[in-house]
Amino acid sequence: MTIRKSIWVAKPLAASFKLFCEEMSEWWIGGFRGKDSRPRLELKVGGRFYERTADGSEYDIGQVTAYEPPSLVAFTWRAPSWEEITQVEIRFTSEKSGTRVDLEHSGWEQSARTRDAQSNYDTGWGMILGYYEKAIKTAG
Fold first, then answer.
1. Is the model's pLDDT at 32 over the cut of 80?
2. pTM score, two decimals?
3. What is the pLDDT of residue 117?
4. Rounded distance between C-alpha atoms, residue 139 and residue 134, angstroms
5. Sorting pLDDT into bands at 50, 70 and 90, what band is 58?
6. Which of 15, 21, 58, 95 has its C-alpha lying 20 to 30 A from 52's C-alpha?
């Protein structure tokens, strides 16, 4: 099974992609290491997807598997308690006077642990995209 989420934001394609990828640590609230942890992307294939805490410590979540501005970013995802690696793909498409953002998070069928976590991630991705939407609305 795959988690699928789609939203529309009132910003042009390039600005929407840039805010999501380059400014992720400004709008994505919380992470595996607590509410003061902020996810970050190294903007290249093979780059790290990781979070950094307020004290500067880091935790690797995954690796960037696709980076094609302004239309696609993808990365692997592994929670601290998992051995399994899942995949996240986010596509950005011009639509009307804004951008459609389509997220897919796959790989849940690998184990009982990932299958059990899927519904929490479904809810979590809704929250994360809500943070992103709020950031889009307040971005200059």
1. no
2. 0.94
3. 93
4. 9
5. very high
6. 15
CA 18/CA 4 separation, integer angstroms = 21
Q: Average pLDDT, whole number, for the chain? A: 94
Domain extents for the chain?
Answer: 3-138
Q: Which two tokens stand for residue 82?
A: 């998992």
- What's at 82, amino acid-wise? W
d(CA 8, CA 52): 28
Given this model, what pLDDT does residue 1 score?
Answer: 87
CA angle 120, 36, 28 (to 5 degrees): 55
| Secondary structure of residue 101 in the 3-state scheme | strand
How far is residue 40's CA from residue 86's CA, in Å, rounded to a whole number? 17
Q: Where are the alpha helices (DSSP H) in the chain?
A: 13-22, 24-27, 112-138
